[in-house]
Amino acid sequence: DEERRFLPDTLITMQEACAALVRAAGYEAYAKTSGGAVTDYIVTAKRIGLLDRVIADEYVTYENAVKLLYNALHLTVYEGTRYESDGSVVYSAAQSGETVLSVYHGIGFATGIVTDNGITSLSGASAVGRDKMVIDGRIYHAEKKGFEKYIGQEVTAYYRDETERDLARVIYVVPYEHEELKIMAEDFIGLQNGVL
After folding, report:
1. I want to staple 112 with a disulfide (CB 3.0 to 4.6 A). Which of 4, 133, 135, 189 is the partner?
2. What does the pLDDT look like over 145-173, one tens digit per residue?
3. Pairing of strands 167-175, 154-162
4. d(CA 152, CA 60)
5. What share of the chain is helix, strand, coil (3-state, %, to 5)?
6. What's this model's pTM, rounded to 2 decimal places?
7. 107: CB partners within 8 A, 6+ apart
8. H/E element, 13
9. At CB < 8 A and 24+ separation, what contacts does 50-53 make?
């Protein structure tokens, strides 16, 4: 509130949530270029994608809170790129596609089709071996059990880059909802050299 008290049982307005998340993601200077009023934070939130799939309510619902946090973690980082002699800072969105997740938590994400799950691949036997998966041509280490079930599915895989070991370790996978096509074993004529 105005007296800077913590009131955990008070409802959070959409304006308050947008202002806090815009600031947390580094976009405060961007919002201030329009004046810095509360409505400027809402406009900035819309422009940067913070309000994607969020239903505009006066207060933040649990559903909107989850969507806001998800969107905030996936925003492209906005950072100072040039510092002028008069003390002003020129800001721009990071060109590298770095997000709040990657910069502050070392977590990247990739969206694509799982073409190899370490057991089999869409073209036959696995070419990468156990505890690995291939998403759109890139190999990821996937040591957790259960990732193999995503073969042929479009997913978003969250991974931690471990540069000292030169690998990207998958920590979480979100499959996209698509209509499934089930092919029964009796529909196959045969198997030759690992190809159906």
Report:
1. 135
2. 888 899 999 999 999 987 666 679 999 99
3. antiparallel
4. 37
5. 30, 30, 45
6. 0.70
7. 101, 158, 159, 160, 171
8. none
9. 50/18, 50/21, 50/22, 50/25, 50/75, 51/18
